[in-house]
C-alpha cells in the first residue's frame, strides 16, 4: 500500500469513526455545544435585533447567518469561517494572517461589499477587503447576502454583501459577563483574547481585546520556478511569513428611553507581517505594517409618532495606514518604501415606516475619502486622491396573500466624484491632476413566495455599477500598476430558487432542509488584471463577461446526536472580451466547482466533527495557461464543555496539501491547534 492510499484510508476512517464516541451515553442535561453554521430564513428575529438590521423574515435575498457559537474556540480567521458556505470562494496568499479575499458567485473581491455593523469598510483606495485584518474574536455573527443587496446597505454590489456584526451588549443590569480564551498550535502560533460586558443602570459597556502571532514557518515544496523539472525541487520551511497582530474593540451605550439609544464604538487594529517572495528566498526582508482605527457614533429612535417610524443615524471616521517596505527590491517593481494613508469620514440615515401590509425603507448616505501615498525613497511622486460620494435608496416590502407573498422593489442613486490632485515630479516637472464625476441609478426587484408551509420560492434581479478603485486607477503597491483609463463596471445579476424545511417528531430524523438557487451575472467593462512575464499586474477593462451557476445546500439532523451539512456550488465563467487571446476563456481566480461536507455529533457537552473542503477548475491567468491544482482539505475536531470551561482541539488539512490559491504562494499543510476558554 503506497502513502497516498494510506492517507486516503486514514482520512476516510477518521470521518466515519469520529461521531461514535458520542453514542456512549443516552443521558441529557448539560448545556450542549452549539452546532456549526446556522442558516436563517423565515424565522423571528433574535433578541439583539435593532433598527437598521435586515429583517430576514422579509428579505427575498438568498442569505446565510453564521453565529459565533460555530467558530468560537477555533484557531480560524474570518475567511476560514465563511468559505464553507455555498457560492463563496476564498483566496488566501499563505498561512494565518496572510491576505484573504472573498468572492461571491464568481464575482471579484472588489465586487463584494463588506460591512461592519452596517458601516461599509471597502475603501476607495483598494476596493476589495482583506479579511485577515478583521479580528474574529470581536465578531458576534456574519451575515452573507448573495446577489441582491437589501437597501439597509447604502452601497450594493454585483457579488453581494458580507455584513460582520461585532459583539453587542447583552448584559442584564448590575451583572458582569466576561470570557477569556487562550489558544496555541502549529508553527508557534498562539492567541489570547477576552471580553467583558456590564450594564450598570441605563449605561452599558463592552470591551473586547485579542492578540495573535505566528511564525508561519510551515514546510513547502519549492520547485525553484521549474514546474516540469523535479530534479531541483526541495522541501524547506516558509521564509518571512511571520506576523503579529492586536485588536481592541470598545463600546459604550446609554438608553435615553425605552425606544431611544445612543452609543459610541471604537475599533483599533495593528499588524506587522513579513511578505515572502515567490521563490521563498531566505534573504527577503519585505514587510507590510498596518494600523487602523475606526470610530462610530450611533443614535437609534424607534416607534416615533403615530406612523411607527424607526430610525438610525450613524457618523463614522476611519484612519488607516499601511507601510510597505521592500527597500532591497526582493518583490515587485524595484526598491520601494511607501506609506499609504487612507482617511474616511461619513454618515448615513436610515428610516423605516411599518404598516400592516408593507415596510417602506429609506437610506441617505454621504462621505469623503482621501488617499495619501508617500514615497520615503523619493523615487516616485505619488498623487493624493480624493473621493466624495453621495447615495440614496428607497425600498418597499409589500406583503400580500395573507403574508405568503412578499414583493420588494428598490431603487438606488449614487453620485461619485474622484479627484487626482496635481503633484511635482522628482525632476521638478509638474504632474497634472484629474477629475472624474459619475452618477448611477440602479433598480432592483425581489420576490418571495410561500405556496406551502414547507416551501419558499425566491427570485431577484438587479442592476449594479462599480467604479474603479484608486488602487486600480492610480495605485502602485508592490506588484500591481495603476491604469487611469479604466471605466466603471456595469452589469446585472439575477437568481431564482427554493428552500424546503421540515421538522419531525421522530427519533430517526429530527429536521431536514434543502435549498438551491440558479444565478446569472452579466458585466460590461469588467475590470480584471493582466500579468506580464515578471508577475507584474495591471488592471484593464474587458468588453464583457458572464457567469452562470447553481448553489445548493443540505442539512440533516438525525438520531438525536448527528448533523450532516453539505454545500455544493457549480459556476461557469466566461471572458467575452475583444482580445482573441482571452475571448471565450474562463475568468481567472474563480473555481468551477466546490463542495463542503461536514458530519458532526454532539452529546451533552461533547462535540466531535469531521469536514471536507474541495475546489477544482481554477486558472491563475486570463489566457488560461496556468491551471491551479485541485484543492482537497480534511479537518477534524473535538470539544468538551464542562461547567464554565470549554476545551477545543482540531486538526486542519489532514492530507498535508500545500494548496496555492495564488500562484507561488502556498497555504500550510497539516496543522494542530488547541484552545481553552473560561466564561464568567
Sheet with the most strands? 22 strands, antiparallel, barrel
Helical proportion? under 10%
Given this structure, which CATH class is correct? Mainly Beta
Secondary structure class reads mainly beta
What is the count of β-strands? 34
Between the first and last Cα atoms, what is the distance in angstroms?
A: 51 Å
Number of domains in the coordinates? Answer: 1
**What radius of gyration results from the CA coordinates?**
25 Å
- The chain-level mean pLDDT equals 86
CATH superfamily: TonB-dependent receptor, beta-barrel domain
Briefly note the CATH topology name: Maltoporin, Chain A
- Please name the CATH architecture: Beta Barrel
Q: How many H/I helical runs?
A: 3
* Anisotropy-based shape: globular
> pLDDT below 50 for ≥5 consecutive residues: which ranges?
1-46
Beta-sheet strand percentage?
over 45%
Please explain how this structure is put together.
The chain has 680 residues and is mainly beta. It has a single domain, classed as TonB-dependent receptor, beta-barrel domain (Maltoporin, Chain A), CATH 2.40.170. The chain is 4% helix and 55% strand. It is built from three helices and 34 strands. The protein has helices spanning 3-17, 78-82, 470-473; strands at 62-67, 88-92, 100-104, 112-116, 119-120, 139-146, 160-166, 176-185, 189-198, 203-214, 219-222, 234-237, 243-255, 260-274, 287-304, 309-326, 336-354, 358-375, 385-400, 405-420, 423-424, 430-431, 434-452, 455-466, 480-481, 489-503, 509-531, 537-558, 562-575, 593-603, 606-616, 631-642, 645-652, 671-679. The strands form five sheets. It has a 22-stranded antiparallel beta barrel. A five-stranded mixed beta sheet has the order 1-6-7-4-5, with no helix packed on it. A hairpin with a 4-residue loop joins strand 13 (243-255) and strand 14. It is globular and about 70 Å long. The relative contact order is 0.14. Residues 1-46 have low confidence and may be disordered.
Amino acid at each position: 500500500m503506497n502513502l497516498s492510499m494510506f492517507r486516503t484510508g486514514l482520512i476516510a476512517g477518521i470521518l466515519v469513526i469520529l461521531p461514535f464516541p458520542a453514542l456512549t451515553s443516552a443521558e441529557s442535561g448539560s448545556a450542549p455545544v452549539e452546532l456549526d453554521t446556522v442558516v436563517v430564513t423565515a424565522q423571528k428575529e433574535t433578541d439583539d435585533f435593532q433598527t437598521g438590521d435586515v429583517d430576514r423574515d422579509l428579505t427575498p435575498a438568498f442569505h446565510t447567518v453564521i453565529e459565533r457559537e460555530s467558530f468560537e474556540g477555533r484557531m480560524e480567521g474570518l475567511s476560514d469561517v465563511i468559505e464553507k458556505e455555498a457560492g463563496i470562494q476564498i483566496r488566501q496568499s499563505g498561512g494565518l494572517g496572510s491576505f484573504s479575499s472573498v468572492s461571491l458567485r464568481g464575482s471579484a473581491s472588489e465586487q463584494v461589499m463588506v460591512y461592519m455593523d452596517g458601516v461599509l469598510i471597502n475603501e476607495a483606495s483598494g476596493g476589495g477587503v482583506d479579511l485577515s485584518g478583521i479580528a474574529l474574536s470581536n465578531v458576534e455573527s456574519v451575515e452573507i447576502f448573495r446577489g441582491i443587496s437589501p437597501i439597509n446597505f447604502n452601497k450594493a454590489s454585483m457579488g453581494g454583501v458580507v455584513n460582520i456584526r461585532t459583539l453587542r451588549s447583552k448584559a442584564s443590569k448590575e451583572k458582569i459577563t466576561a470570557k477569556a480564551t487562550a489558544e496555541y498550535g502549529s508553527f508557534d502560533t498562539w492567541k489570547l483574547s477576552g471580553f467583558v460586558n456590564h450594564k450598570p443602570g441605563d449605561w452599558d459597556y463592552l470591551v473586547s481585546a485579542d492578540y495573535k502571532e505566528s511564525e508561519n514557518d510551515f514546510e513547502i515544496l519549492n520547485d525553484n520556478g521549474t514546474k516540469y523539472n523535479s530534479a531541483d525541487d526541495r522541501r524547506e520551511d516558509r521564509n518571512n511569513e511571520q506576523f503579529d497582530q492586536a485588536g481592541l474593540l470598545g463600546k459604550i451605550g446609554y438608553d435615553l428611553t425605552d425606544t431611544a439609544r445612543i452609543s459610541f464604538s471604537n475599533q483599533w487594529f495593528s499588524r506587522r507581517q513579513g511578505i515572502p517572495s515567490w521563490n521563498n528566498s531566505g534573504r527577503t526582508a519585505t514587510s507590510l505594517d498596518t494600523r487602523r482605527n475606526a470610530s462610530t457614533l450611533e443614535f437609534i429612535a424607534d416607534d416615533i409618532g403615530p406612523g411607527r417610524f424607526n430610525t438610525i443615524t450613524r457618523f463614522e471616521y476611519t484612519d488607516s495606514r499601511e507601510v510597505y517596505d521592500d527597500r532591497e527590491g526582493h518583490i515587485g517593481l524595484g526598491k520601494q518604501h511607501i506609506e499609504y494613508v487612507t482617511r474616511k469620514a461619513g454618515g448615513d440615515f436610515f428610516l423605516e415606516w411599518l404598516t400592516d401590509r408593507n415596510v417602506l425603507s429609506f437610506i441617505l448616505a454621504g462621505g469623503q475619502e482621501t488617499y495619501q501615498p508617500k514615497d520615503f525613497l523619493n523615487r516616485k511622486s505619488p498623487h493624493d486622491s480624493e473621493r466624495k460620494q453621495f447615495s440614496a435608496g428607497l425600498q418597499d416590502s409589500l406583503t400580500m396573500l395573507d403574508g405568503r407573498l412578499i414583493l420588494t422593489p428598490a431603487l438606488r442613486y449614487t453620485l461619485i466624484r474622484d479627484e487626482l490632485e496635481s503633484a511635482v515630479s522628482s525632476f521638478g516637472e509638474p504632474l497634472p491632476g484629474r477629475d472624474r464625476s459619475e452618477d448611477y441609478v440602479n433598480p432592483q426587484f425581489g420576490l418571495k413566495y410561500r405556496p406551502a408551509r414547507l416551501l419558499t420560492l425566491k427570485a431577484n434581479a438587479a442592476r449594479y455599477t462599480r467604479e474603479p478603485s484608486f488602487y486600480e486607477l492610480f495605485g502602485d503597491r508592490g506588484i500591481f500598476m495603476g491604469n487611469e483609463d479604466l471605466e466603471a463596471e456595469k452589469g446585472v445579476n439575477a437568481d431564482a430558487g427554493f428552500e424546503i424545511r421540515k421538522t419531525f417528531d421522530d427519533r430517526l430524523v429530527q429536521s431536514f432542509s434543502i435549498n438551491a438557487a440558479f444565478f446569472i451575472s452579466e458585466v460590461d467593462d469588467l475590470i480584471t488584471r493582466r500579468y506580464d512575464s515578471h508577475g507584474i499586474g495591471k488592471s484593464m477593462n474587458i468588453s464583457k463577461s458572464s457567469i452562470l451557476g447553481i448553489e445548493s445546500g443540505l442539512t440533516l439532523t438525525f438520531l438525536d446526536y448527528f448533523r450532516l451539512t453539505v454545500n455544493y456550488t457549480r459556476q461557469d465563467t466566461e471572458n467575452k472580451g475583444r482580445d482573441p487571446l482571452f475571448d471565450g476563456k474562463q475568468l481567472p481566480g474563480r473555481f468551477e466547482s466546490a463542495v463542503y461536507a461536514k458530519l458532526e455529533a454532539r452529546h451533552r457537552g461533547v462535540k466531535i466533527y469531521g469536514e471536507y473542503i474541495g475546489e477544482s477548475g481554477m486558472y491563475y491567468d486570463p489566457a488560461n495557461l496556468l491551471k491551479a491544482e485541485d484543492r482537497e482539505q480534511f479537518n477534524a475536531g473535538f470539544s468538551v464543555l464542562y461547567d464554565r470551561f470549554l476545551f477545543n482541539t482540531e486538526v486542519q488539512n489532514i492530507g498535508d496539501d500545500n494548496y496555492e490559491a495564488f500562484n507561488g504562494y502556498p497555504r500550510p499543510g497539516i496543522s494542530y491547534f488547541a484552545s481553552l476558554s473560561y466564561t464568567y
